[in-house]
């Protein structure tokens, strides 16, 4: 397009095609060989036979899974810090950021003796995400000042009822990093980084 | 009664029963199906006479081709009792009965006087119906009627082509 | 003397019939599986691989599914004919197997048992007769459904089968001129001693093959069940195992047609480049018969594959193209083939003197 001249536009659209991939339709009457039909059939059959030896793009899904892209945004996870305390302070910034209004929460104050459960004085007593509303845009992840919510590398499995898609805290919370080390590492995937205090 | 005789009576009953049902059934599709049964029974008779070639040709040509065309046409027209115009002409009915009875009379008289009633069929022993003998007979003793019938078929074919040909419309 | 029947003879034929019927059912079952697999690998897919190892139990699962489906008989259909349709389709499909020589003979209990249910002296005509009856199953079923689309499918099937039967018959006449027999067993015997008939009748084979595709209602001639014009054609109204019968009959027909083509043109149970007399001396009659049957089934399996290969390659004909091909191409071509063959046979009998 670098030598595009406006006064030549008519000529370009009528005469010259933009790419060289266009093919003119051949409307000549068929030759005897073409009308015999069999050579074309053999050609076609050679093509289909050749496809028997091609690599199949399909994978056997549940046994083999494709790797997710590094920017994939899947199911939400509520994060814990390295001691296993919940990061979320129920500030509500994620709910405000959410364009689909999928997130609701209720805040509560941390009582004496709960310091090992919640990192700060305020925590989310109830935290729900409606996965049917969520558009997986990742704005909640960006809005969160405490690195408490991020989008993981899995997606919401099918369910028989709508209420099954409303994920509560027990569905979202990441496993405990010390008590359930393996499950925690698995849920973390290769993405989340825990901020060192 | 040998096994051949049992089969003969069974096939005869089937043939006649089928033929009666062809006439008696209300729906023309059923009539054709009964006619097919009749053809099968007749083929069975041919097999009993050791004429497998005739039997199978009867099935291929009549049951396999002609009856399919009959069925084709009848299904396409969807004939049934409702679409049939009411039969007003009673004399047609009586004429039919009279004609049928006369034909029966002639047939009975002809068969009664013929000499073939002594030995009606060669059960399982005759070999005229086998293909090689049949071919020899057709191309030696009966070559003239054979060729005449082929000319008949040819003229029928040409007739069909002429009838089905599109009319050439001349623009003035 | 009421009924004098050789009991052992009846028993051996009965066992043979059961084996042939069962194995053609089994082969038809796995032909459905093969069809899906072939379709899949030709489209770079994987095909059924969940039921059992490599998906081998898939046809069983399909059959179970069909059995447990609800059976629907339309209100305004004639019930008897509606049920008769698929039964006839199945019956005619199974009947053809009677005259096909699956092998030479086996020797058990001091008896030579021929591996052919009935060596009729007009074997190939019998096949022809039964195949020409196959259309009744479709026509009766389609009419009894009381459905316009079904009826259209049935009419298409009838006109198509009648048209292609002619070319098929004429192509066959040329073959009969060459071999001089109507018995399939004798024909296979000739081919075992000499060359296979495909080398003597290549054009005849091509015409026969095309007509067989049309007779089996297989793509590119599957107009009777054209799903995107006729919603499934003659089996639109069918459900449950009655539909299964129609589908099954198609695969049995394919297998039987393959067997007929093998017997007629590809030497039947002949193993190429092997002297059978020597083989019989070295390993015995029964093992040779087994090898022969395997050879036969292998060739038939190739043709089954050909059926599927063509199906997933060539698109369906339009109706007028179908009729043009049948009447204006194949019949003149087969007549020409017959004339040339007749002239050559005549010349050969006169020791190539004019």
How much of the polypeptide of chain A forms β-strand, as a percent range? 5-15%
Major β-sheet strand ordering of chain A = 2-3-5
Q: Which CATH top level class of one domain in chain A fits?
A: Alpha Beta
From the 3D structure, determine the CATH topology of one domain in chain A.
Alpha-Beta Plaits
- Helices and strands of chain A, in order, run as HHHEHEEHEEHH
Profile the largest sheet of chain C.
Answer: 2 strands, antiparallel
Number of DSSP strand runs of chain A? 5
Percent helix among the residues of chain A? 10-25%
- Detail the poorly predicted runs of chain A: 192-197
- Overall number of strands of chain C: 2
Category from helices, strands and their pairing of chain A: alpha+beta
Describe, in plain words, how this protein is organized in 3D.
The complex is a heterotrimer of chains A (197), B (172) and C (354). With 197 residues, chain A is of the alpha+beta class. Helices cover 23% and strands 12% of the residues of chain A. Chain A has a domain at 76-188: 2-Layer Sandwich (Alpha-Beta Plaits), CATH 3.30.70. Chain A starts with 8 loop residues before the first helix and ends in a 9-residue tail after the last helix. Mean pLDDT of chain A is 80; it is low at 192-197. The model of chain B has no long low-confidence stretch (mean pLDDT 81). Helices cover 72% and strands 0% of the residues of chain B. Chain B is mostly helical and 172 residues long. Chain B folds into two domains: 3-81 and 88-129, NADH-ubiquinone/plastoquinone oxidoreductase chain 6, subunit NuoJ (Four Helix Bundle (Hemerythrin (Met), subunit A)); 130-167. Chain C has 354 residues and is an all-alpha fold. Chain C has 13 helices and two strands; from the N terminus they run H-H-H-E-E-H-H-H-H-H-H-H-H-H-H. In chain C, strand 1 and strand 2 (111-114) form a beta hairpin. In chain C, helix 1 (7-42) crosses helix 10 and helix 11 (276-283) packs across helix 12 (285-311). Classes of the chains: A alpha+beta (197), B mainly alpha (172), C mainly alpha (354). Chain A binds chain C through residues 41, 44-45, 47-49, 51-52, 54-58, 60, and chain C through 41-46, 49, 309-310, 312-314.
């Amino acid at each position: 397009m670098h030598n595009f001249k406006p006064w030549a536009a008519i000529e370009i659209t009528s005469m010259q095609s933009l790419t060289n991939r266009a093919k003119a339709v051949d409307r000549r009457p068929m030759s005897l060989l073409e009308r015999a039909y069999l050579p074309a059939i053999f050609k076609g059959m050679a093509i289909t036979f050749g496809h028997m030896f091609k690599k199949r793009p399909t994978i056997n899904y549940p046994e083999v899974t494709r790797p997710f892209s590094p920017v994939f945004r899947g199911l939400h996870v509520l994060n814990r810090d390295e001691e296993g305390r919940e990061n979320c302070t129920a500030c509500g910034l994620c709910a405000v950021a959410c364009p689909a209004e999928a997130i609701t929460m209720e805040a509560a104050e941390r009582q004496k003796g709960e310091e090992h459960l919640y990192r700060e004085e305020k925590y989310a007593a109830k935290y729900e995400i409606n996965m049917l509303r969520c558009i997986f845009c990742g704005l909640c992840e960006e809005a969160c000042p405490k690195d408490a919510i991020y989008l993981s590398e899995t997606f919401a499995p099918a369910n028989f009822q709508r209420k099954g898609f409303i994920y509560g805290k027990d569905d979202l919370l990441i496993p405990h990093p010390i008590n359930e080390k393996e499950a925690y590492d698995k849920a973390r995937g290769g993405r989340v980084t825990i901020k060192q205090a | 009664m040998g096994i051949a005789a049992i089969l003969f009576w069974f096939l005869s009953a089937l043939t006649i029963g089928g033929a009666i049902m062809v006439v008696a059934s209300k729906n023309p599709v059923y009539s054709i199906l009964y006619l097919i049964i009749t053809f099968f029974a007749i083929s069975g008779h041919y097999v009993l006479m050791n004429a497998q070639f005739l039997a199978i040709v009867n099935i291929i040509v009549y049951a396999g081709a002609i009856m399919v065309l009959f069925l084709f046409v009848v299904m396409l027209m969807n004939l049934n009792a409702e679409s049939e115009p009411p039969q007003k002409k009673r004399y047609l009915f009586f004429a039919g009965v009279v004609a049928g009875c006369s034909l029966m009379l002639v047939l009975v008289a002809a068969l009664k006087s013929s000499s073939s009633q002594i030995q009606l069929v060669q059960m399982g022993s005759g070999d005229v119906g086998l293909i090689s003998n049949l071919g020899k007979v057709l191309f030696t003793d009966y070559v003239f009627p054979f060729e005449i019938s082929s000319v008949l078929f040819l003229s029928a074919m040409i007739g069909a082509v002429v009838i089905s040909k599109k009319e050439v419309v001349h623009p003035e | 003397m009421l009924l004098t029947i050789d009991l052992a003879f009846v028993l051996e034929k009965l066992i043979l019939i059961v084996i042939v019927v069962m194995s053609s059912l089994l082969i038809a079952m796995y032909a459905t599986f093969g069809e899906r697999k072939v379709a899949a690998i030709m489209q770079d897919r994987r095909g059924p691989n969940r039921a059992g190892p490599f998906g081998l139990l898939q046809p069983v699962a399909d059959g179970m599914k069909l059995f447990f489906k609800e059976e629907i008989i339309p209100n305004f259909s004639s019930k008897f004919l509606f049920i008769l349709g698929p039964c006839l389709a199945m019956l005619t499909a199974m009947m053809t197997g009677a005259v096909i020589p699956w092998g030479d003979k086996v020797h058990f209990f001091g008896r030579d048992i021929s591996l052919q249910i009935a060596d009729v002296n007009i074997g190939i005509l019998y096949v022809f007769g039964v195949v020409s009856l196959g259309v009744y199953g479709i026509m009766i079923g389609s009419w009894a459904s009381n459905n316009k689309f079904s009826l259209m499918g049935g009419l298409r099937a009838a006109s198509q089968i009648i048209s292609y039967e002619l070319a098929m018959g004429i192509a066959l006449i040329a073959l009969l001129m060459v071999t001089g027999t109507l018995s399939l067993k004798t024909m296979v015997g000739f081919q075992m001693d000499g060359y296979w008939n495909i080398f003597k009748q290549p054009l005849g084979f091509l015409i026969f093959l095309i007509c067989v595709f049309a007779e089996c209602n297989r793509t590119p001639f599957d107009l009777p069940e054209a799903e995107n014009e006729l919603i499934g054609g003659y089996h639109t109204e069918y459900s449950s195992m009655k539909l299964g019968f129609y589908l099954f009959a198609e695969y049995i027909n394919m297998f039987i047609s393959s067997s007929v083509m093998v017997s007629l043109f590809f030497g039947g149970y002949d193993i190429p480049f092997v002297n059978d007399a020597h083989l019989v001396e070295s390993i015995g009659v029964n093992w040779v018969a087994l090898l022969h049957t395997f050879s036969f089934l292998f060739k038939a399996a190739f043709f089954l594959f050909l059926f599927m290969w063509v199906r997933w390659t060539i698109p369906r004909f339009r109706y007028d193209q179908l009729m043009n091909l049948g009447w204006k191409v194949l019949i003149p071509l087969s007549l020409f083939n017959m004339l040339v063959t007749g002239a050559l046979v005549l010349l050969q009998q006169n020791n190539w003197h004019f």
